Amino acid sequence: MSHANLMNNYFNLNSVYTEEDFRRRFRMRRHVFERLLCDVQQVNLYFRQKRDRAGRLGFSPHQKVTVALRMMAYGSPADLIDETYGMFESTCLDTLEQFCDTIVQVYKDEYLREPNQEDLNRLIRKAEDRGFLGMIKSLDCMHWDWKNCPTG
Question: Which sign, positive or negative, has the C-alpha torsion 53, 87, 73, 147?
Fold first, then answer.
């Protein structure tokens, strides 16, 4: 039932929530979610739906990826996810661990690396076009005075 609700709310053609709602709640666009979903299913069998020993379908790939993303995006504890998605706390934690390991495996060469000079030039151009000069130097934010800093 939680899979059907998730699909009806976010993924079906006439879903309850709009694309803007999806982006706000998932912190990404739907097509990015679907790319992640496809990629993790191809690499890790954990994210494919399986039947248990009684022949019942287990959690869907959509449910597993949603749980992992919600835990990361909102810092939601596993026991809260348990109540919302009907997935036991231990399964939520296993799902999060599998997701993180798989994301690193799939995307480390493309996204999880130090930027090269071409990357830096592209980032600088994009930031300057938006009026944010000196962006690369500010990434660590160490030169900013922050009035609410507990040690500042």
Answer: negative
Nearest Cα to Cα of residue 65 among 91, 99, 39: 99
Q: What is the pLDDT of residues 27-77, one digit of tens each?
A: 999 999 999 999 999 999 999 999 988 999 999 999 999 999 989 888 888
> Could you read off the pLDDT of 107-128 as tens digits, one per residue?
998 888 888 889 888 888 888 8
pTM: 0.74
Q: DSSP per residue over the chain, as a string?
A: -HHHHHIIIIISTT-SS-HHHHHHHHSS-HHHHHHHHHHHHHH-GGGS--B-TTS-B---HHHHHHHHHHHHHH---HHHHHHHH---HHHHHHHHHHHHHHHHHHHTTTTSS---HHHHHHHHHHHHHTT-TTHHHHTT-TTS--TT-TT-
Place of tokens 């934010």: 141
Residue 51's DSSP bridge partners are 57
Report d(CA 9, CA 92) in Å as an integer.
21
CA distances from 117 to 48, 111, 122, 123 (A): 38, 15, 9, 10
